[in-house]
Amino acid sequence: MIPLRCTHGRNGDKDNRCTCCGVQRRLGNIFAKLEGDESIKRKPVTVMEWKEARRQGHKKGKDNTQRELTSTVMTVAELLDHFQNLLDICIPHIQEIKWIKHLQDTDFSKMSKDTILIFTDFAALMALRARQAKNSSVDAHAIIANFVVLWNKRIVDAKGKKKDESGEEVEYEEKVTISNVDVFHFFAETFEKGKKNDHQMHNTCLDEIIRIFRARLGELGVELKHVIIWTDNAPHQYR
Predict the structure, then answer these.
(1) Per-state percent for the chain, helix, strand, coil, to nearest 5
(2) pLDDT averaged over consecutive 10-residue blocks of the chain (239 residues)?
(3) Best CA proximity match to 116, nearest among 50, 192, 40, 180
(4) Rounded distance between C-alpha atoms, residue 213 and residue 180, angstroms
(5) How far is CA 186 from CA 9, 17, 27, 196, in A?
(6) Which of 40, 88, 140, 223 is most open to solvent, judged by the fewest CB atoms within 10 Å of its CB?
């Protein structure tokens, strides 16, 4: 992982990032070269940029829009300035993703026989509509909760083939860490598009998963003691 002082700045000051390694040093040299040449700075270039594009329809008196990859013409100077602004957002964002991945890997590496590791998220809201709708028909709505459960982590012997230094294919054996992976999809009615009962559904599904894996681990002679859950941290969905 890149040190936090490079991505988030010293003591959290994003304007005081470390420039002794990696991103700033390498890109800084490129930026300096391009910005030092006036003929290059004024040169127009065509780039692809995410922009709000107009869609059909209106809402509250305004045109509907959605983000689309759009062709745009700008000068090299404008491109460099735009790219630098995006980097200020992207660099700490990628670091935070890597930090989350590091924590997830840590949870898996320390997972014991009496622990299950759960990754969960809600899918898109479904509109349930009759094939033949009447004039006063109202759509029903449903939500989907997805759970990926890792359990029964263990070390097994694995065999494979690889090429040695001379290019010859040889067999080898090694110990690898594996686990069982089960995927669950739960469907439930929701009262409205706002999905006001997400947290109730999540807790009900979680109770069912714990019941299932208490039984499965019990068949292996193991008592379920710990449940680790990873979500997207939406407070109204998980209480």
Answers:
(1) 35, 40, 25
(2) 69 68 61 76 89 75 81 89 82 86 92 95 79 73 90 92 87 92 90 63 92 96 95 73
(3) 180
(4) 12
(5) 43, 45, 47, 16
(6) 223
